[in-house]
Amino acid sequence: MSIDKIEGIFGSGGSLSKVLAPEYEWRPQQLEMARTVGRTLEHGGALLVEAPTGVGKSLSYLVPGILWAIRNDGPCVVSTYTKQLQDQILNKELPRLQRVIDRTVRIVVLKGRSSYLCRQRWDHFVAEQGGTVEGERVQNALQHWVDYTDTGDFADAPPIAPADLRVLERICSDDRFCATQRCKPETGCFYKLSRREAKQAHLVVVNHALLMTDLFGGRGGLPEFDTLIIDEAHHLERAAAQPLSFSVTDRSLELVLRALGGRGEPGVTDDLRKVARVAMSTVSRRPYLDKLRGLESETAEVIQEVRRFWIELQARPDYPGPNESRRYDPSSVPPIPESGAGLCRLVRSQVTKLQHALMEVREQFDAEALPRTETLALAEAERRLERVTEQVAQLEELITPTDRHRVYWIEAGAAGTERGDRRARTRGPRSDDDSEGSGELGIGDDLVPSGASAIRTVPLMVGRELQDRLFLKKRSVVLTSATLAVQGEFRHVAERLGQREGNYESLALASPFDLPKQVRAVVHTEMANPNQPQFTKQLAEGIIEITSVLRKKTLVLFTSHEALRRVAGHLREPLAAMGVRLLAQGMGEGRHRLRASFEESEPAVLLGAASFWEGVDFPGQDLEVLILARLPFGVPSDPVVQARSERAEAQGQNAFNDYYLPEAILRFRQGFGRLIRRSGDRGLFIVVDPRLHQRGYGAQFQRAVGVRFQPMPGWREIVSEGVSWFRLSDEGE
C-alpha cells in the first residue's frame, strides 16, 4: 500500500476534500491516523489509536483497510460495538469511499445466526403453532415479510409484540438445520447467502460479539482473514468476556425444561410424536405414545424440583438481599443448597430418557424417506435436548466451581431497569449478535433477565485469551476509540487486553476542537455527597433552576438507576409546569425513542444512565448543558469489581490507583464526549460531585478532558455563570 496514495486522499488538497466539498474540513489528525493505520496494515503488528471526536477516524481506517484489501485480494474485517456505527459505515461512508477510491468497492455487514430467518424452522413453527393464539399473531405479523424478504435479516422485519419476541429464537438460523444438504444459498438460506457475499467483499463489517464468537469458538462464519480493525475498542474486553460467561436463572432453567414438552407446551415429545405417527406402525406406535405421555409427566415433576431448588436457595440465611449479590469461589463452600447436585442428576436422567426415545423412533424409518416436516421436527427435538444439556452442564459448574480465574456469584433479583428495557426492545434473540451493546459498568450485565434470581460466572480477566486467540493469530490488528488512554498512556487498557509494552504501537491524537473556548466547565463544591439521602433532592432543585433560566436542552448522566428515578420524581411536576419535557431512561420509552424525543423537544431534560454515557450524538443546540451526577467509579460491592480489586492488591498494585481510578477516568471522558460533537458546538459542563474539587485525584479527571474547571459554591452561581457564558458565546458568533 502506498502511503503517497493515502496522502493524496487525505491531504489538504486531496481527493477527499474535493469529493466532500464544500462541507469538508481538513484535519491533520485524520491524515496522521490514516498514515499510521496504513503502515500497520502493510507491515503487520498491533496498533492502539486514540482518536477524539471530530478527528474523522472512520475514514482514517476505512480508506487504508480498503486499499490493503484491493491490493491483497482481502478481506479486511472491521468490528464495531454498536449498530449505529455499522449503519454509518454502510450508509454514509461507503458512498464516499466509492467516489474517492473506486466505485466497485464492496462492504458487507455480517451478523450472527440469530439475526437471520431460517425458512425451514419457520415452516416447523407454523406447523407446530398453527391455530394457537400466539402462532396466528406471529404469522399475521411476519408471513408477508417471510414470503418476500431478500435478506432474511430480522432488523428489516415488521415489529412483533414484546410477548412474542421469544419466538424469534425458534425461527432464526441454527447450525443443526444448516447442516442439511437442502440448506443452501440457492434454496433460500439467508445465513449462508450472507457468508457467500462476505467472501466477495473488500471490507466485512461485524460487531464485537460476532467477532468473539468466531475467535473463541469458530462459529461466527467469518471468511478467512488476517487483517482486523476494531473500532469502539474500549468495549473489546467486555465483548471478549461474553462468550466465556454464563449464568443459570430460575427462568432460564425452567424454560429449557418446558421445551422438553408436556402440558400443552410445544417441545421434544411433540416433535417425537409427530415423527412416530409417520414412521411407526400402528402396533408399535401406541406403546411409544404412551411412553411419551409418561415422560411428559416426569418432566413436569422435574420442573417442580427446579422450583423447589430456587425456593430453597432463596430461603438460605446467606442469600443476598434484594438487588444484591453474594460472591463465592472454589476455595469456599458455595452458598448453594446441596440439593443442586441431585437436581442436575435428575435433569440429566430425564434428557437421557428422551434421547433414548428419539433413537427409538429413528430406528423405525429410513432417514431419506422421511417427509420434510418430520425431518424438521426431529432436528428441532435434537436442538432442544442439546440446550437442556448445555444448561445443566453450566449449573454443575456453578454449583461446584473449579476455575480460580473466574468470578462466581449469586444475584438476587436485579433492579436493572436498563436491562429490562433492553429486552423489551430487542428485535432478535440475544446470542452472538447483540450489536447495540450494553452500557452498564459491570462486565456481565446482559446475562440475566431483569428481576431474575441467578447464579453467574464471568472470567476474571480476558487478556490471555485475547493474546492467544487474537493478537498472536492475526497479522495486523488496529484498535481505535475516542477513549483508550489514561493521562496519555495506553498501559492500563493494553494490559487488560493482553498486550505488554513493546508488543504494540500507539498513537494518541489531539482533539481538533478548541475545547477551552467551546466548553465552560464548573464543579459544584457544596453539594451533598452523592451517597447522602438529600443529594437527589438538591440535584433536582439545581436542574430546575438551570432549566428555568437557561432553557437549554440538558442531559443529566447518572451511575445509578435508583438515583435517576428519585430525581425524576422530584422533577416531573415542576418541569411540566414550566413547559419543559422530562425524559428518563428506564421509565417507559426505549433508548432509541428517548433519543428521538429529546431531539424533537424544545426545551427538554433527559436523565440517562448506563448506555447514555456513550454512543449518543446530540450536536449543536440538541445538547448545550451536560450534568454529571457523580464521578463514575465502579461499585465496590459488584462481584467483578471486588475480584479485580483483590487481584490488583495480590499483584502488589494499589487497587484504587491502578484499577478504580483509571476505569473511572475513561468513563468520565466518555460522558464528557457527549457535549461537543462539532467544531461549532458550545456547552456548559457541570459536575455536581464535590470530590472533583476536594480530592487529590480530582486533578486527574480535570486534565483528562482538557478543560479547566471553575469551583462554584451553589446553583445560583452556576446559573449566573451559564448565563454569562452563553451570552459571550452568542456575541462571539
Automatic annotation (TrEMBL):
Domain Helicase ATP-binding, first and last residues per copy: 16-289, 38-268
PROSITE patterns for the chain: HELICASE_ATP_BIND_1, HELICASE_ATP_BIND_2
GO molecular function list: 4 iron, 4 sulfur cluster binding; ATP binding; DNA binding; DNA helicase activity; hydrolase activity, acting on acid anhydrides, in phosphorus-containing anhydrides; metal ion binding
GO BP annotations listed: DNA repair
Keyword NAD: no
Pfam family, one: Helicase_C_2
Start and end residues of each stretch annotated as Disordered: 418-446
The protein, known as: DEAD/DEAH box helicase
Originating species: Eiseniibacteriota bacterium
